[in-house]
Prior knowledge:
CATH superfamily of the largest domain in chain A: Creatinase/methionine aminopeptidase superfamily
Largest interface: A-B, 34 and 35 residues
Shape of chain A: elongated
CATH class of the largest domain in chain A: Alpha Beta
Structural class of chain A: alpha+beta
CATH topology of the largest domain in chain A: Creatine Amidinohydrolase
Helix content of chain A: 25-40%
Strand content of chain A: 15-25%
Oligomer: homodimer
Amino acid sequence: MSEVHAARRSRLRARRAPAGAEAALVSRSANVRYLAGPAPAGAVLLVGHSGADVLFAHWNPAGDPAGPRPAGDDGLRSVALGTDADPAVTAAAQAARDGAAALSVEEHHLTVARHRAVAAAVPDLVLNDLDRAVERQRLVKDEDEIAALRSAAEITDRALGELLESILVGRTERHLALELERRLVDHGADGPAFPTSVATGSHSGLAGHRPTDRRVEEGDFLTVCLGARFRGYRCQIGRTFVIGTSPADWQIELYEVVFAAQRAAREALAPGAEYRSVDRAARDVLDAAGHGKSLGPVTGHGVGLEIGEDPQLAPTAMGRLGPCVPVTVEPGVHLPGRGGVRIDDTLVVRSPADGGPELLTITTKELLAL
Amino acid sequence: MSEVHAARRSRLRARRAPAGAEAALVSRSANVRYLAGPAPAGAVLLVGHSGADVLFAHWNPAGDPAGPRPAGDDGLRSVALGTDADPAVTAAAQAARDGAAALSVEEHHLTVARHRAVAAAVPDLVLNDLDRAVERQRLVKDEDEIAALRSAAEITDRALGELLESILVGRTERHLALELERRLVDHGADGPAFPTSVATGSHSGLAGHRPTDRRVEEGDFLTVCLGARFRGYRCQIGRTFVIGTSPADWQIELYEVVFAAQRAAREALAPGAEYRSVDRAARDVLDAAGHGKSLGPVTGHGVGLEIGEDPQLAPTAMGRLGPCVPVTVEPGVHLPGRGGVRIDDTLVVRSPADGGPELLTITTKELLAL
Lengths: 370, 370
């Protein structure tokens, strides 16, 4: 893996090269992981202008297995800091010693107080904004990253599949969520990609619903939304089921509308498609059915080392999809007091020549009566 | 509860009053919760100079039960924002409209990019630093807060007690951690206060060890560290057990030393005691036994709405304990390749007249052989 990270750092350096002898100070944790691999919390990466990259961190004193090390083949050196040292300040001082004329920092991540401490430590360095360069680089995934997402999705499908074979009536949202998270770990996840949501009855269809002590009852809609984190990569699946043998007419109708909206957005995924046109595809179906207003502001988003990455699939989002961009497609409708439906998938954008969008979360989207 | 929050905001206002018509923009989530009660993620609180306080947030469109509302008896109004609006920018604009001359912001929390957006939105307002005023106010807890911590500790003791009654040999750290977290929730916790740590064999005694697939074996030290979150308040307990009927001599000796160090620090807790003298009390015992070097940089810390609050009990920490300050006391020693011992308690500082330090986590600290 270390060659992968070195290549990513080279690409970042190449992008910043026109700025001259400019080093980059990367502090946002997912960005550090992307460029340097797993690192302790709070680690900061200095991407030097000349190729000498250094990771600064507080390692566990008792000997983290991935502890500090001299520079390897990949040109990355690690330095362990004392408790009181801010890795960002130490990294900036290193950039000055290495002869950088300017230092780009992540102004969307560093606080005002830390930025001031960095500036005070290196008065001769010009501080610029890295301007989300690493986030932009993370948007399109390489095949290693997509493989990790695929494994995360497999684990997630398996955990969900097992739950569907168990008795659900009478159990609380909270317990079902805990059981799903346990099964994710059982099947090899590092942990859940985000807090598992289980919503039954009048809660069903709510985005990001936090599980309560409400019990699953006969006749309920049951919405679950979960995902595994595997080698740092996070996927998402959402499904809605009906409890009992015979769904009510309103349930069948609502399910069909949300399913049609979700399918329309999935089918709109293609290299070159505008973010907002994918959103529009789902929104048009729900608008036509009179449910446009209960749709949230976003119908999907990128996934990767974080669960809510760029791009956003939303009415005002600017930009176009590229190949190898993984996104969720997750429209939902909630009818206050009654419940609702959400259907979420994680897919990778692929060209029609490559078979079109690659569906990672393959659990059936038929309306199952459990 | 709303009177409690209103009184807290009045105290903050009173502290800032010498600064004139200065409003405060509180963005750090635990600080917002402390001053306004539970609020959606990302909510920002404007504490007006004249007593008109407003909470700005993105509420769940499907009708969060604690959704936006007009000002109640407590003088707090809530405003729901559109997706694209930054609550900090909207709050600053409100302060300007309310006639504030200056606005204090949390420079240790706002990023450089957000601070710039706030400044651009209110060019006529002087922006100052709130300088951790809310964190300082949160240091000493009121009896409501201590009652929440007490409940959190009761839940934690119960979850741990149940685990001790089960068979441990052969189970993995990861599974034991998940089971403890499930039991916390079973007994009424909102969730774990921090990621549960279970460390067995050569991992035992490591601070913040992340559970692995290592299984508990006969003869192991087993260290668990967990805590419940209850009404937002977080406590911490850590215990080390020995697996099997007969601990080895080195295990008994190491346990006794860490226990003595932990007791010394607990006994040093009193109103007026220096933070560093509490740390010193534990460190001296371990130094004398030749284990001083394997002690981490901190032997305890405040707890409350966050798990690692002020004060820090560390060699260079400046300040003195006051009554009603809850802290952890958590020395640990890890011997590489062999394992080690941690013993963590949560206590509330009380004067000798009030019976001395109040121990919240009451699970026995005898060396149990399980």
